[in-house]
């Protein structure tokens, strides 16, 4: 028996990818480990299930009203209970998205990744993969329907929840797909259109069947006057920087005249040098682990199995687990966007650089692409016995010199950072748990401030060849914007923390964070000492 519907909202718009996107699926790309979702016609698409999961997951509320809107299923007393969702989310096919091609076609890209062994500092054994991505600037059609299945009071509440979700999409607060904290999945809703349909009267039904869109309404019409939009507690950090020397991330593919090319990604249809969010986050995490392992006297695990060894090295580091995540087990609170160069390239000119067959042709192609500041550097391995050049160890790198980059953008989700550690005794004490959650957030932010300080002091290089003279950067500014923050962190609503010389400024907030950091550190160092003694 069909359920009775009184009204519904038809929502349409476009999701603009502010960063590359990966929504996985099965396809015939034999050379790719993590492929993109493909529909029955062979076109790349975003499944409605992925969109629905991202929208529902953003609410992060454990209440019956979420289940009432999005549906649920549970079993009690041997009976199944629940109902289907009142939100209908359509699949979103991506037009003109192919691997390869030219012109106006959206070209999918391949990004490779590798795990780093924490003991050797080199690539971890068996942890090498690549993934296909839809590039930044791709447009995703959005089509949603919200149906009224309950009384008018429940409908008004559902409209508010749905309006909050749409407003979050417009604000870029919801991410889509995989690797959301490592540079991918940032989207922004544009061209929003809402049509309200009345299915409870003859006139309303007639207008609906005749596709009458005279009842188009704005987003504000879904909420009461003076309504305060519900946005997640987040801290956004913008880091202005410049390279001191060559800074780049190496592309997986090699050139002809040059062996190692810088990574390039599409930025709204044009090639552009890029430092992936995964590379920046990896550099920050490595330093965070170094800090915490040193302070807590934690050894790096040396498990025999190489895959399990890498997993063990990632997990079990206090604060780092909450801030950066635990692989597939737990998403971290810190998200880092891809960082693009400010100069965009013409596709044919960059293709000429990649396919240049001689040093002279390469220099000509670089001049034509207005990349005279990019140089080909030659390197050679030295035979340790003869002291001469080692056989077959000559290679060249296209190094990026004097390239201007957009700021590095970091986002901290406080809800994830407030996942406090609890003992069995504390589980029963609600006030103690809430206090631990507050402390956990402040300790996580304190660790992040230490990382920003180390960035400012040149202790964290970025990209490829950081042990061989590359990757040095200098910070120019650090701006912090917070929203919906708790009272004890309200000072982060709009601040810098650093002076013009990129030194930390003394403030009440830093004093408070330092106190929490010292108290947390003292407690956990004592626990670590007790375990070692035992």
Major β-sheet strand ordering: 5-11-1-12-13
Number of DSSP strand runs: 23
Averaged pLDDT: 84
The profile of the biggest β sheet is: 5 strands, antiparallel
- Whole-number count of domains: 3
Unreliable stretches: 99-104, 420-438
Helix content: 25-40%
- Strand content is 25-35%
Shape: globular
- Structure class: alpha+beta
How many DSSP H or I helices? 13
Termini separation comes to 65 Å
Radius of gyration: 26 Å
Question: How would you sum up this structure, described in words?
Answer:
Strands 5-11-1-12-13 form a five-stranded antiparallel sheet, with helices on both faces. Helix 12 crosses helix 13. The protein has three domains: 216 residues, no CATH class; 198 residues, no CATH class; 83 residues, no CATH class. The protein is globular. The protein is built from 13 helices and 23 strands. The termini are far apart. It has 534 residues and is an alpha+beta fold.
List keywords for this structure.
single chain; 534 residues; alpha+beta; 13 helices; 30% helix
Task: Furnish the topology, listing elements before pairings.
Elements: E1 7-17, E2 45-46, H1 48-59, H2 64-70, E3 72-76, E4 79-83, E5 87-89, E6 92-93, E7 97-98, E8 106-107, E9 109-116, E10 123-133, E11 139-147, H3 152-170, E12 187-198, H4 202-209, E13 216-217, E14 234-243, E15 264-267, E16 270-275, H5 277-296, H6 306-314, H7 320-324, E17 334-336, E18 339-344, H8 347-355, H9 359-368, E19 374-382, E20 389-400, E21 408-413, H10 414-417, H11 424-427, H12 430-456, E22 473-483, E23 494-495, H13 508-533
Parallel strand pairs: 7-8
Antiparallel strand pairs: 1-11, 1-12, 2-6, 3-4, 5-11, 9-10, 12-13, 14-21, 14-22, 15-16, 16-18, 17-21, 19-20, 22-23
Helix pairs in contact: 2-3, 8-9, 12-13
């Amino acid at each position: 028996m069909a359920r009775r519907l009184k009204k519904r909202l038809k929502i349409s718009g476009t999701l603009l990818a502010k960063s590359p996107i990966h929504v996985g699926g099965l396809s015939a790309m034999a050379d790719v480990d993590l492929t993109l979702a493909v529909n029955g016609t062979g076109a790349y698409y975003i499944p409605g299930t992925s969109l629905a999961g991202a929208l529902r997951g953003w609410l992060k509320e454990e209440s019956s009203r979420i289940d009432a809107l999005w549906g649920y299923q549970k079993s009690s007393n041997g009976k199944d209970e629940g109902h289907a969702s009142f939100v209908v989310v359509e699949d979103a096919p991506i037009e003109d998205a192919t691997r390869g091609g030219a012109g106006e076609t959206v070209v999918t890209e391949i990004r490779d990744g590798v795990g780093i062994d924490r003991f050797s500092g080199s690539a971890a054994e068996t942890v090498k993969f690549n993934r296909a991505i839809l590039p930044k600037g791709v447009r995703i059609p959005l089509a949603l329907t919200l149906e009224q299945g309950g009384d008018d009071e429940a409908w008004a509440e559902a409209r508010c929840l749905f309006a909050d979700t749409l407003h979050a999409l417009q604000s870029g607060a919801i991410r889509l797909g995989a690797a959301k904290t490592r540079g991918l999945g940032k989207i922004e809703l544009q061209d929003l259109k809402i049509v309200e349909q009345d299915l409870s009267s003859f006139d309303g039904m007639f207008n609906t069947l005749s596709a009458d869109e005279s009842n188009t309404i704005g987003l504000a019409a879904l909420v009461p006057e003076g309504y305060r939009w519900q946005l997640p507690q987040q801290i956004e950090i913008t880091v202005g920087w410049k390279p001191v020397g060559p800074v780049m991330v190496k592309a997986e593919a090699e050139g002809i005249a040059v062996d190692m090319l810088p990574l390039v990604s599409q930025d709204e249809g044009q090639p552009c040098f890029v430092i992936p969010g995964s590379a920046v986050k990896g550099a920050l995490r490595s330093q965070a682990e170094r800090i915490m392992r040193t302070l807590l006297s934690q050894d790096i695990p040396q498990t025999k199995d190489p895959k399990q060894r890498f997993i063990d090295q990632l997990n079990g580091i206090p604060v780092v687990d909450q801030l950066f995540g635990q692989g597939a087990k737990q998403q971290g609170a810190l998200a880092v966007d891809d960082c693009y160069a400010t100069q965009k390239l013409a596709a044919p000119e960059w293709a000429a650089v990649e396919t240049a067959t001689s040093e002279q042709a390469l220099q000509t192609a670089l001049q034509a692409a207005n990349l005279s500041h990019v140089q080909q550097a030659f390197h050679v391995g030295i035979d340790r016995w003869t002291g001469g050049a080692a056989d077959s160890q000559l290679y060249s790198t296209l190094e990026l010199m004097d390239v201007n980059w957009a700021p590095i953008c970091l986002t901290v989700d406080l809800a994830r950072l407030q996942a406090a550690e609890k003992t069995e005794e504390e589980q029963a004490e609600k006030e103690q748990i809430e206090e631990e959650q507050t402390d956990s957030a402040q300790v996580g932010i304190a660790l992040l401030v230490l990382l920003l300080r180390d960035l400012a002091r040149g202790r964290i290089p970025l990209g490829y060849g950081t042990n061989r003279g590359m990757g040095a950067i200098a910070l120019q500014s650090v701006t912090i914007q917070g929203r919906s923050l708790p009272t004890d962190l309200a000072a982060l609503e709009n601040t810098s923390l650093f002076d013009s010389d990129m030194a930390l400024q003394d403030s009440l907030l830093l004093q408070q964070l330092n106190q929490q950091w010292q108290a947390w550190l003292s407690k956990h160092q004592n626990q670590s000492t007790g375990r070692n003694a035992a």
